[in-house]
Specification:
By secondary structure, this protein is an alpha/beta fold. It has one domain: Alpha-Beta Barrel (TIM Barrel), CATH 3.20.20.150. The chain is built from 15 helices and eleven strands. The chain has helices at about 10-35, 40-50, 80-90, 110-120, 150-170, 195-210, 235-245, 265-275, 300-315, 335-355, 360-365, 370-385, 385-395, 405-410, 410-420, and strands at about 55, 95-100, 125, 125-130, 175-180, 185, 215-220, 230, 250-255, 280-285, 325. Strands 4-5-7-9-10-11 form a six-stranded parallel sheet. Helix 5 (about 150-170) runs parallel beside helix 6 (about 195-210). The longest helix is centred in the N-terminal third of the chain and has 27 residues, at about 10-35. The protein is globular. Bound molecules: alpha-D-psicofuranose and manganese (II) ion (2 copies). Pfam families: AP_endonuc_2. One of its GO terms (molecular function) is isomerase activity. Keywords: Isomerase, Manganese, Metal-binding. This is Sugar isomerase R00627.
Length: about 425
């Protein structure tokens, strides 16, 4: 039997009850924005064009190193993951692409997988490689590292895996590879801090050489975990220096949870833009470190400030500025579909709020050293409730005015619980 899906009629029915109130709120916001010389309809168009990739692994319940508490009706393979990604896009209309993780999403027929995605209106974005775990069929272990391993055979195996990811990505229609390695050390003295980086560089050069002409590689840095004393690609400085040495195809990816505590992430973003090396983002939120909490759930102002830098770069037509957006979260206590829809909305919110900053007024205040005036301009934009505008963007794109309530009313999860018998314990691709 055909798997249950949420129909366009169901969404239209659900919207009907909310449409009048939404339009009323939107009209009020439109008038308020007009007083600042902002055209709300043009903003709606921009929001409708905004897209962030869903990671295929994000639709499964996450877990910590202590436990994973699987939810009902979880996807059991990449095709079922596609079905869930399709629902997220159908209702919230902000996630037209998906980002695969290899080998979690390995299949025999990638053309078929790509076609299946296309039937849902989805396309594949950046491919993620994985040399941070051992796979059953794998010859050599990554316990002591991958691309920076002391043993040349392990490095060669990790390089070959990344090249295989590029091959798979080509079949899926991707144009970039993200490399995050868990390499590092857990004891002072365990590794030679210089030699590990040299070995990584040599391995990365081989991967860069294997990239097709129109491909890029994204280097994802991370301060700690699972290596708790030192990490080879630990911070944006290392990432930037490595990207410089690797040349014009290498860029630096910013995962919001991968920085030292209290670091000014928006300034890192501005620096990477300035030097033409910003690859894009793994969006999530964090309280302590790489918590992988839902985007905008803890520090919405910081998210807004990141988007403020992105809009500034876009307006200046910063050279080579084309950031790739992906959500990278671990949904441990929520239905992942709900979390991902809400996260995509929070990203659109930060984007829309950054768009309504009066750039001329901000610049004038900055030039006049009017610190509070400049700050108040940002605060005005940040405190504007753009929710009705986001709802109208979804409505015009054929989505749901209230995606989470529509999703709950549809009974999708309980249908899936019947169609997909429970997954027990941990399984590949559900991290
Ligand atoms: C590592 O913490 C990371 O952020 C990388 O992007 C991985 O690919 C991802 O998490 C998924 O585990
Ligand atoms: Mn990440
Ligand atoms: Mn992470």
């Amino acid at each position: 039997s055909t798997p249950f899906s949420i129909s366009a009629d169901f969404i239209a029915d659900h919207n009907r009850r909310l449409e009048d109130a939404t339009t009323e709120d939107y009209d009020a916001l439109k008038r308020a924005l007009a007083r600042h010389g902002i055209n709300a309809d043009a903003l709606v168009d921009k929001v409708m064009a905004f897209g962030v990739a869903i990671p295929t692994w994000g639709v499964g319940t996450g877990g910590t190193r202590f436990a994973r508490f699987p939810g009902p009706g979880e996807p059991r393979n990449v095709f079922e993951k596609l079905d869930d990604c399709a629902v997220i896009q159908r209702l919230a209309r902000a996630t037209p692409t998906i980002s695969p993780h290899i080998p979690w999403d390995k299949v025999d027929d990638y053309a078929g997988l790509r076609e299946q995605a296309a039937t849902h209106g989805l396309a594949f974005d950046v491919v993620n490689s994985n040399t941070f775990q051992d796979q059953p069929e794998q010859e050599l272990s990554y316990k002591f590292g991958s691309l920076s391993h002391t043993d040349a055979r392990v490095r060669a195996q990790a390089v070959a895996h990344n090249i295989e990811c590029i091959e798979i990505g080509r079949k899926l229609g991707s144009k970039a590879l993200t490399v995050w390695i868990a390499d590092g050390s857990n004891f002072a003295g365990q590794s030679n801090l210089t030699k590990t980086l040299d070995r990584y560089m040599d391995a990365m050069r081989e991967i860069v050489t294997a990239l097709p002409a129109d491909w890029r590689v994204f280097l994802e840095h991370k301060l700690y975990e699972p290596a708790f004393y030192s990490t080879v690609i630990s911070d944006w400085g290392t990432s930037f220096a490595v990207a410089q040495e690797l040349g014009s195809k290498a860029y630096c990816l910013v995962d919001l949870g991968h920085h030292a505590p209290n670091v000014n992430i928006e300034q890192i973003v501005a620096r990477l833009v300035r030097f033409g090396k910003l690859a894009g983002f793994h969006f999530n939120d964090s309280k302590y470190g790489d918590d992988d909490l839902d985007s905008g759930s803890v520090e919405p102002f910081r998210l807004f400030l990141v988007f403020n830098e992105l809009i500034d770069a876009e307006r200046r037509k910063a050279e080579g500025f084309a950031p790739a957006y992906m959500i990278d979260q671990s949904h441990n206590v929520t239905d992942p579909i709900e979390s991902l829809m809400q996260s995509a909305i929070e990203l659109q919110r930060a984007y829309a709020q950054a768009l309504i900053v009066d750039r001329a007024a901000l610049e004038a205040a900055q030039e006049a050293n009017d610190a509070l005036g400049a700050h108040l301009e940002l605060k005005r934009a940040f405190t504007t409730d753009v929710s009705p505008l986001l709802a109208i963007a979804r409505l015009r794109a054929g989505g749901a005015i209230a995606p989470i309530s529509a999703y709950r009313a549809s009974g999708y999860r309980s249908q899936k619980a019947k169609e997909r018998p429970a997954v027990t314990g941990t399984s590949a691709g559900i991290v």
